[in-house]
Request: fold
Amino acid sequence: MTKYIIRRLLWNIPVLFLIAATTFGLSRALPGGPFDFAGDRSLPESVRENLKRKYNLDAPIYVQFADYMMDLMRGDLGPSFRYRNQTVNDILKQTFPISFQLGILSLALGLLIGIPAGIIAALNHNQWLDYLSSFVAILGVSIPNIVLGPFLIWIFAVKLGWFPAAQWGVDYTELYFGFIPPMNSDFWSHAALPTITLGTALSASIARLTRASLLQVIREDYIRTARAKGLPERTVIIVHALKNSLIPVVTILGPLFAGVVTGTFVVEQIFGIPGLGRHFVQSVTNRDYPVVMGTALLYSVLLVLANLFVDIAYAWLDPRIRYD
Amino acid sequence: MPTPEQLAIDRRAPLRVSVWQVRWRRFTDFTRRYARNRMAVIGLLIVLTWVVVGLFAPWIAPYGYDKTNYNAANQPPSFAHPLGTDALGRDQFSRMIWAARTALIVAPTATVVGVVLGVFFGLLAGYFGGWIDEIVMRLSDVLFAFPGLLFALLLAATLQPRLAAWLSQFERIKPWVRAGYVEFFVVVIALSLVGWPGLARLVRGQVLSLREQQFVEAARALGVSPWRIMWQHIFPNALPPVIVALSMSMGSAVVAEASLSFLGIGITPPTPSWGAMIYNEFASWRSPSAPWLLWAPGLAVAALTFAFNFIGDGLNEALNPQDRLT
Reply:
């Protein structure tokens, strides 16, 4: 197992290198440069040349890439071209925790609603409760964030005025250890709508999977054995069926995590949340190469780790699975 | 030991059914099972309606999608403008109809390209194994570690202007470039590149189990070429989950196109796209002056996604009857 983990971690180095190279190439291929301001703000040619020299943008692209990779080894993601006083590390430090909070909250909401809903549907198989929850689940899977988000804002922020329509409740300076937000009402009221927006689709797909998986497990021989032993139904379901039925749910947590990352891009844009996703979209339009690179790399590392974690959890939950 | 004559008779009498009769029978069985799922039928109807609307957009839409009329800007719904007009005085109803065309060109094309790539690489990797498998799987590893929308965003942002500039040199293509078809093309490429690895893995898994089955062994023993085994023996059997995935990913492609356009990077104005329309009218959600401008494209995206997902559900039940219980 340890060997497997080490091998996976080592394999991820070339993967991340390829991603770095692709992102680097793609971001440099963006037409226009970071210092091409339009209209009144446009810079004279000489200033632009100097700026380019300062950030080493006049060097051949492979030299730039080599320099970037050397800096990366030291954990330095370089300066931002747009925000003159900030490095990419600063920007990530300020914006990523917000996206992270949003992601974790949505994932938690997805699991908290999805798993019980799936179990209830499976236990009431082919009864109205099952049909209802399956129908709601497929609706939930289908409703896109860009539709649900504005819809929630319309009802709960504009019409009812229960929640703020935009922004995030806490500033990065208020975070404990730079990550954990103070659990005050400001935080929760701002987090509510975005979390629901992002968490609905998650809970729906988790519910569908839990239901399907539990239905399959219930028909297994060992469940029949447990029932034949005269165990109460509650014990059969909770002790024998549930744990095994959650294995497939664990396996899709990796792809779900990727979905959450993608979702934060859109949801942050809808709710005007100053997180990393929103910053990334802006950086693409601003041609702020180092921020684009830094974001892509950070998310890739996270995804790679999430997938690894899922595979390990899989083996731990199902002793029949052996990696070697 | 029967004589050859007896064998001939036995062979002839009871089984005079042509291949096409069998296929027809299978098809009617399939449609009957599909029709049992009412939501799937409704989904199919919704999609067909949008297809018709998109196909006949120039005849159905009362106005052009880019026809501005500043004297009639920001109007509420009326007989002349069933869904009102936007800030530029463009008829929202007509733009909705034209946007159906965008959605139904981009999403299915992106999905089909992605599925073709996925099936091709999945078959190759699963059937031949070895270094081909290694390369395909590692490539999909890389794409999996890259958040899809992030990659699509970067790809669309870099490809689009360059391609448009390059194509504009050709006089004949120029009007197409100006009409925004390059954006369609770029979004299709971006989405299909992001979409194929998942399908490739699905197909590969299917092939790995099918490859070991006896009918494949029999074909191999008869000296059928690998290529033919792959396409004629393995591929049809690996198809059902692919068809279900195809329908499901159409739904997500509709959302992905709308999301990219919502972020301002996919289909850009004046070409109408539901996602871009939602983004355009977004301010009015916060200061509710013209909510109908937002309801319409929002509902359209949602309806189309529902429809594709319900179709996927129906296909799943119809194609895998043994899974019906789960």
Remarks:
- Chain A touches chain B through 56 residues (CB under 8 Å).
- Residues 88-123 of chain A form the longest helix (36 residues).
- The two ends of chain A are 7 Å apart (CA to CA).
